[in-house]
Amino acid sequence: MTPGKAFLSTNEIRPLAERSDVMGFWLVVHCWGTIALAVTLFGIWPNPLTFLLAVLVIGSRQLGLAILMHEAAHNALFKSRKLNDVVGEWLCGRPILAELLAYRHYHLTHHRFTQTDRDPDLVLSSKFPTTRASLKRKFIRDLTGQTGYKQLAAQIMMSIRLAGDDEAIVAASSDFAQAFKARDLFKSLPAFLGIIVLMAMIGDWWWGLAFWLLPYLTWFQFVLRIRNIAEHGATEASENPLQNTRTTLAGPIARLFVAPYWVNYHLEHHLVMHVPCWRLKEMHNVLTRKGVTARMRVAPSYRHAMAEAGWETPGS
């Protein structure tokens, strides 16, 4: 049963769940367009500020591509399964070394068993709350590229070790799906490297390394961790859909750098997982009018969500 049916009628869910091919294509174009705009801005005004801005924006849009692949995994990006599979795989997943099919299988299991012993994401959320020192170490590793390098090296080693052994690759795929990683790196690597080469052709030889590899190894890893913590970290380990997941309210700055494409409305997504991301805010408003949000775990900002996970005392 869809958890949201306990709080929303079928007549309320139906229009929220309506998908749009036009909106799906617009989101993909918007994501890639934002990446192009960030690089163009540096090309016109090359300086340390526009360089840093490009790295942060592109890293957040790499998360945006992961979110749009997540939409396609739920068949919510487009009306047809084929469009979801093709666009979600090749324009969203492969460019960030992710794989739609492996992710879909793992992620639907997460929805079915959220915050229970059978949840494959429990390993990510069960660590919280933790200490400020522990979070600081994690954030430093992310921002300095240590996390990204370690995960990329692990992907390469697994792909080499399991080359040609499809059953072993499938068996090992869950750990990589958790972090939006392809189970067979070498199938996604051409798309990833192709973007690096294209950026080098458009600008200087180092542009692809600076504006695709560097964001991928640093800011993308950081905002991916922030997202994981905010969604299920330090939430209730139960089957209560209003408390085992968190929605985090986000202003324009947070949406630009940390939470693109309504990813912050995660509790709403868990209530009705086939509602397209661009309708989640509307769904939140419907729940608010019905008085449901008063019982939901909602953080007023990402700072508060991190505070609940152990970063600081809210309001300090």
Automatic annotation (TrEMBL):
Pfam family, one: FA_desaturase
EC number assigned by the record: 1.14.19.-
One annotated GO molecular function: oxidoreductase activity
Residue intervals passing through the bilayer: 24-45, 51-73, 191-214
Keyword annotations from UniProtKB, A to Z: Membrane, Oxidoreductase, Transmembrane, Transmembrane helix
Enzyme class: oxidoreductase
Matches recorded under PANTHER family: DELTA(5) FATTY ACID DESATURASE C-RELATED, FATTY ACID DESATURASE 2
Protein's recorded name: Fatty acid desaturase family protein
